[in-house]
Amino acid sequence: MNPWSVFWRQGHSTTFGDYFKQGYDGAVAAWWQAHVDALDADVAVLEVGCGNCSLLPFMVKSDVAGKYIGLDLATVEISEVARKGLDESRIEVVLHQETPAEAIPEDDATVDVVASVFGIEYSDLDKSLGEVQRVLKPGGKLATLLHHDSSVVTSMSRRALTEYDPADMQSVLDALLTISKARDATPSLADLKNNTEAEKARAEINRLAGKYLSDTNPATANATMFEFMTNALKFFKMMGASNEEREAFIASLGTEHTASRERFEQMSSVALDEDAIERLKIKLADLGFGNTRIDVVHSNNDILAWELCTEKQLPH
């Protein structure tokens, strides 16, 4: 399964997941709100790499009239945050899920603004930027935030990749399965402590919990394994659940943390340095874009992203 499908099906409203439970905030919000405030009436906005429609709530709150088109290669939906006020809004929503940015299913020159927050750079830019140019109206804008090679997001992703311990993760999953099977073979929950294999598995989980949960210093703690162990311990609140529910929990625990590693790998690999940005400028000019502006966006004095804003040039 697409690792981002695993992420979005958990109901997240933004790429940053639990960090912004109610939608984007701070620098991202300020950036996109400025674009929303400049939108004309009856506008068509296409969000590339939309996830669960992360930029839609700003349009709803600003009472924008027109169409929001979401496109993502993953399996996505309209998040709970994005649905608030949507029924009373003047926005038509079209959602293209499991759809590549290299083949946008919209007609030529029908979109006013193409927007993307950490999305379009995951595609083949040689093809996807050509598609953006095709669907934009003359004078239409492309507004994006792109992963920066020196950003706090990229640094976090690279650090996370060093923190994964596949052997310890598998040991936890195996121990949970052992306990789950023992629970089914035990007359009562109280008798489980008399099961030798279950007690051995529980001791292994306690050992690893002590290893990863004892250090709570953000500078030194293994945040990735801390999160994994915290989620794994939720299993013990499910001891009264059915075998199917318990094993589904264990399977999803393994799937999510495998997918999260893939997401961090992708976030690291698509980050753009200054040389890549210079090549991107040339690519945009060759495709017929102009008035291109590229800046660095900061958040709390840290680099957050590249900001790219450009326009499809009017025909001569």
What is the radius of gyration computed over CA atoms, rounded to a whole number of angstroms? 23 Å
| Biggest sheet descriptor | 7 strands, mixed
Give the ordered list of helices and strands.
Answer: HHEHEHEEHEHHHHHHEE
Question: What is the assembly state of the chains in this entry?
Answer: single chain
Mean residue pLDDT: 93
Question: Which features does this protein show?
Answer:
316 residues; alpha/beta; seven-stranded mixed β-sheet; 11 helices; 7 strands; 44% helix; 19% strand
Could you give a short description of this structure?
With about 325 residues, this protein is of the alpha/beta class. Helices cover about 45% and strands about 20% of the residues.
Note down, in words, how this protein is organized.
The chain has helices at residues 3-8, 26-37, 56-61, 80-83, 125-135, 152-163, 166-184, 196-213, 223-232, 243-269, 274-287; strands at residues 43-48, 65-71, 90-96, 111-117, 136-146, 289-299, 302-312. Helix content is 44%, strand content 19%. Helix 3 (56-61) links the parallel strand 1 and strand 2 (65-71). It has a seven-stranded mixed β-sheet, with helices on both faces. Helix 7 packs antiparallel against helix 8 (196-213). The radius of gyration is 23 Å and the shape is elongated. The relative contact order is 0.13. With 316 residues, it is α/β, with parallel strands linked by helices.
